[in-house]
Each structure stands twice: as structure tokens, then as C-alpha cells.
Amino acid sequence: MTPERRIAFVSVLAAIALIAIKLGTGLATGSLGLLSEAAHSGTDLAAALLTFLALGVAVRPADRGHPYGHGKAEHLAALAEAFVLGVVSVVIGATAIRRLIGGDAPDLEVPWWAFALVGLVLAIDASRTVVSWRAARRYANAALATNALHFASDFGGTLAVLVGLAAARGGYPAADSIAALFVAVLVIGAAGRLGRQNVDVLMDRSPAGAQEAVRRAIEALEPRVELRRLRMRHAAGRHFADVVIGVPPAAAVGQGHATADAVEEAVEDAVPGTDVVVHVEPHAADTALGERAHAAALRVPQVREIHNIAVLRVGERTEISLHLKLPGSLPLGEAHEIASLVEAEIRRELPRVDGVQTHLEPLGEETAGRALPVDAFQAEREEVQQIVASVTGAPPRDLRLYRTEAGLVAFLTLALEPERALADAHARASEIEERIRRERPDVSEVVVHTEP
Questions:
Q1: CA distances from 340 to 297, 330, 334, 335, 419 (A)
Q2: pTM for the whole thing?
Q3: Residue 410 three-state SS
């Protein structure tokens, strides 16, 4: 038995004991106040039983028919309890009013032991209120919090009954009916609050404070995230969030996933323990044509890699060109069909584009190679260093040569000014590549990395 169910079971036993004490004392003394409190404790017994049973359902793990778990069973129990409390309290209140209006309140004979029993009831109510409230906060349990509230109202009602009994013994018999009416009003108010709170949960009303905290956390992320929709609900002490965000259409799957992870962390920081589902969508029409064309091309399943996307505007015409990489072993006919699919997808995404031109390239295959020692091909190293120095004014920061079946491969790193524009840095790297290829035909591949 879980700690929550054990506490609920103790509440059941306590409710049975209180009903016996209040009902027996009320019948013996003729006190309407004590009888009303006995009825109140009867509803508490029903509530405790419902809570005990509901907690047994709520702890069940999620299954195919209940993917969000069974936590709402607690709120169903609390709602049923609120309804029963309201009905019984109306009956008790009507009886008390009839006695007060009719002036037929009976004279009560209240022995000393009745006060002792009411004092015992107060002690039990106080102790179970504290225990249930602490457990509700510790386990974030709605049903236990409901029990704690009811037990607190029990304490207040019993205290009023004690005052009424004392006044009735002192010669004011109407005080007992007044105490009963006070208990009825107290319970009706509590039932209304409980009903409203649990109806809100069962109807998936958005938890305003938690939703605003989550919204602020997402909007504060850097880089900025486009929050398109946020829906939240609360059940069984836990929040559930459904988030839809927008990312650039050219973003890779990994980038979108990383953004979704950042959103989940932000939600967890704002409202700990929230069950979060993040849906990622591409940005819409305000995105650059090149990014939208890139995203459209990637929707064709066979496409592996796209680069060198260019948008050309000539008068009122708009042309898009791109390089499309496919496996080198693919027959040209199949490659052309894939390219046609890419062009059609781009036109569907961008209906105002007048033409799409694709350039087919084979994907790079793995090549076996081995690094050359520093003293090997010293002339080639010096010549590459001279070419770099003539273009940038300084030798490369790093230079590595590899021997492959296709020829030499040169990896070199350029150090350029950090404030230099990226386009200018790329132009320098391209110039170096072209000169090395032209002056050293034995170098089959040049890879230039630029850094500040």
C-alpha cells in the first residue's frame, strides 16, 4: 500500500469513529448540531472511501486506453464528495431554519461527558487535518488536499457545535440550531469551492499561473524561438504542456531537435515535473526563398545533400538554382527523376518561382589515405605556403598533406582578421584553392578552413 493510500485508509477509520461519537452523543442529548456534524462526518466517510479507492486507480501506470494515466480519478472522487456535502448540508440547514422560525427548539440536557467527547472529536479533527495537509503537499495529491480542507471545516463546525451546546446548557436552546445552521453554511461554501476546483481540472481548464510562467520561459530563450501555440492542463498534481514552435525550414533535423530540447528544459525550469510534448514546424512565408527552397528539396526522400542554392531575379522573373548530391552509383536516369521531383516540390512550395535548375553531383565516397611525414614533399609544402602567403600576407596556420589513390589531399587553415566579412573570407579561400590546383596538378583536393 502506498503512503497516500495508507493515509486515506487511516482517514476512513477516523471518519467511522467520529460518526459513532457524534451520532451517539447527538441522539443521547437531542442536539441538532451534533446530528448535523454526524452527517458531515458521514460525508467525510464517503469522501475518504472515494479517496482511498481513487488513489488505488490513480497510481496505475498509463496504458493503451489511458495514455495520460489515471490521475483524474482523484478529481472525480473529490467532485462526487462535493456534491454529497452540498445536498446533506442543505437538508441540515433547512431543518435548523425551520426550528428557529417555528420557535420549537427543544430544551437540551447536555451532560459533562458530552463536552468531553466533543473535545476528543476536536483533537481527532485537528490531528487528521494536519496529517492530510502535510501529505497533500508532500505528494502533490489533490484528493488528500480535499480531505484536509474537509477535516479543517469539520474542526470549525465541531467548535461551533461545542459553543452551541454550552449556550444551550446555559439556557439558550436556540443556540444548538444556530450552530447547526453555521455548520451547514460552512459545508455548503466548502462544497462549492471543491466542486469548482475539480470541475476546472476535469474540463482541462488552463492553469493560468503555470501557463504564463511557461510562456515567459520560452519567450526568454536565446536564440529566440517562435512560440506558435501553448496549451496546458493540470491533473493529479501534475501539469501537462503541448507546445508548438516554428524553426527555419532549412534547419536540419538535429537543429530542430536541439531547439525542442531547449524548450523542454525551459518548461521544466518554470514548472518542475511538467509532462511536455513539443511539436516543431517550419516558418511560413516570411522566410527567405533560398531557405524555403532548401526545405522543399529535402522533403524528397532520396535527396542526401543540397548546397550552393542561388536565387536570381531578372526583371519580374525569379530563377532558383541548386547543387544536388546523390549516390555516385545511381544511374543517370534515376538521378534525373529525383531531380525532377525536387524541382516540382520547389515549384509547389514557391509557385511564383519561374524556373528551377538543378546541378547533379555524386556524393563523395570514402577514400583510403595516409598522412605524409613532415619532411616528405618539402617542395610541395613550401610552394603551398608561398601561395597562401602571397594571397593573405602570412603562411597558413596549419598544413597537412595526405596521400590517397586519387592523389595528394591538402588540409590547410587560414588565419584572417575577425572583422573580415564571411564572403570576403570565402573568396580568399577559393582563390587559394584555384592557385594550388593550377600550380600543383598532383594535388587532387584542397580543403581550406578559415578562422580568426
A1: 10, 15, 10, 9, 41
A2: 0.46
A3: strand
All three cell numbers of 222, joined, read 536565446
Q: Which CATH class is domain 289-362?
A: alpha beta
Q: Where are the alpha helices (DSSP H) in 61-111?
A: 72-102
Q: Where are the alpha helices (DSSP H) in 103-202?
A: 112-139, 142-169, 174-202
What b-and-e string marks burial along 180-209, b requiring 16 or more CB atoms within 10 Å of the CB? bbbbbebbbebbeebbebbeebeeeeebee
Architecture of the CATH domain 208-282:
2-Layer Sandwich (3.30)
Condensed to tens digits (0 to 9), the pLDDT of residues 335-350 reads: 888 888 988 888 888 8
In angstroms, the CA 290 to CA 24 distance is 84
CATH architecture of 3-202: Up-down Bundle (1.20)
Residues 6+ apart with CB under 8 A from 262: 221, 225
C-beta of residue 346 within 8 angstroms of C-beta of residue 337: no
**pLDDT confidence band for 285 (50 / 70 / 90):** very low
pLDDT, mean of residues 435-445: 81
Asked whether the CA dihedral 274, 275, 280, 281 is positive or negative, the reply is negative
pLDDT at 448: 81
Look up the CATH number of domain 369-451: 3.30.70.1350
Q: What are phi and psi of 50, to 5 degrees?
A: -60, -45
Same fold flag, 208-282 and 369-451: yes
The residues, ordered by sequence, that sit 6+ positions from 282 with a Cβ below 8 Å of its Cβ are: 246, 247, 248, 249, 251, 295
Domain locations in the chain as residue ranges? 3-202, 208-282, 289-362, 369-451
